[in-house]
Design a protein that fits this description.
The chain is of the alpha/beta class and about 400 residues long. It folds into two domains: about 160 residues, Immunoglobulin-like (Sandwich); about 160 residues, Rossmann fold (3-Layer(aba) Sandwich). The protein is built from seven helices and 19 strands.
Length: about 400
């Protein structure tokens, strides 16, 4: 891949040197002082030599790979650069950097024993994963710089790749106990055992053939699988407060809230509980029936991807949550949120919990008229409080 790019340009040092060369040369000729004129001419030749060296692009082929493309926040992600061709940079130095979220990440040079870029070499470098979400990687920046830094030339090459950074996984065990209820009976108590049919989906590889719904399969001509739920298991509703005004430090505290939300959803899914996730602004909502099938695994993956991209919003109004599936209700919010509105939303649930990211909590747990409030400075602290206070 040849790098034509823009023309070589003088750096601030080069422009200053050029001005000094012209001044010294002009004064030397005006005063007929050959030493001064010679110094000016020498500096001028040096500037021109670096411009010429940076003007001719190297004949290079640069390939870059990034692995893995799906990573948990803080885990390792590596870029692999392979350089081949005939660099022939002469009086210029070659450097390659990768752009990650708009920031240049220098790549270790691939050089031979003489210090020149080596054909057929490779280099590895770390890609930061400190930010949750979609991280843009690329394009590469190839830069030629003069030996004394008076001239430079840069060009961009390569595709822009995306690395999806998932929330950091924190340890959390157990879910709050649910109440025996009929899924299709509006929350009435249920004394008999068995399961309830909550939906159907098309058969996918890995589904239990014993759960085929033959009547629907015969009618549609497509294999359909039952989605059943145990009426005695917790029906979990997780609310993530995504309003920026709810957090004392929006960026940092909201990250803790997302990590805790991810942990609550992960525990519910691993136990096969019906799960409903919603954000306070109503911008995101996911329903996953209980059970353990390949279909649910795909929904769980979609949920993790959704949490990777959620960002705090400016809206200050809490949307109506309704009363559907409000059995175990867990809202994750920040210290500056209006707890009254959240408490009213949780009031229709049988088991009510508010988890508050508070940088300076005065107490860990308290209970107000059936509502359990947990406070912690970090997602890890809140997860520990949940395990000790709520989880069965």
């Amino acid at each position: 891949m040849a790098h034509a790019g823009p023309l070589a340009a003088l750096t601030p040092r080069g422009r200053l040197t050029l001005a000094a060369a012209l001044l010294l040369g002009g004064l030397g000729l005006w005063w007929r002082y050959p030493v001064l004129a010679g110094i000016g001419i020498l500096l001028l030749v040096l500037v021109l030599a670096e411009l010429v060296a940076c003007h001719r692009p190297p004949r290079l082929d640069i390939r870059r790979e990034v692995e893995p493309r799906l990573v948990v926040r803080g885990d390792a992600c590596r870029g692999h650069l392979r350089l081949s061709g005939r660099p022939r940079t002469g009086l210029a130095r070659l450097s390659v950097a990768d752009q990650v979220d708009g920031q240049l990440i220098p790549i270790p040079p691939v050089r031979d024993d003489a210090g020149r870029p080596r054909a057929g070499g490779s280099a590895d470098y770390d890609i930061p994963t400190s930010r949750r979400g979609l991280v843009d990687v690329g394009p590469l920046q190839v830069r030629l710089a003069g030996l004394t830094g008076m001239a430079t030339r840069s060009a961009e090459t390569g595709d822009v790749l995306q690395v999806r950074v998932l929330p950091r996984r924190i340890p959390l065990t157990g879910m709050a106990p649910g109440h025996r209820r009929a899924v299709n009976a509006g929350g009435d108590a249920l004394e008999l055992g068995g399961t309830d049919l909550v939906g159907l989906h098309e058969y996918t590889l890995g589904d239990d053939l014993r759960r085929l719904h033959w009547a629907t399969s015969a009618r549609t001509g497509t294999l359909m699988v039952r989605e059943d739920a145990d009426p005695s298991e917790p029906h979990v509703f997780v609310l993530l407060d995504d309003r920026a005004s709810s957090y004392a430090t929006a960026a940092a505290d909201f990250e803790e809230a997302v990590e805790l939300t991810d942990a609550l959803c992960r525990v519910a899914l691993e136990a096969g509980h019906p799960l409903r996730l919603r954000t306070a602004t109503g911008r995101a909502e996911v329903d996953i029936p209980g059970g353990d099938t390949a279909h649910h695994a795909a929904q769980a993956e979609h949920l993790a991807w959704l949490l990777a991209e959620i960002q705090p919003e400016k809206e200050s109004e809490l949307v109506d949550l309704g009363s559907r599936d409000l059995d175990v209700f867990a809202a994750v919010t920040g210290r500056t949120a209006d707890l009254t509105d959240l408490a009213l939303s949780a009031a229709v649930a049988l088991s009510q919990h508010l988890l508050i990211v508070d940088p300076d909590p005065d107490r860990e747990a308290e209970q107000r008229a059936g509502l359990v409030l947990l406070r912690g400075a970090t997602s890890t602290a809140l997860a520990s409080a949940w395990t000790r206070t709520v989880a069965r």
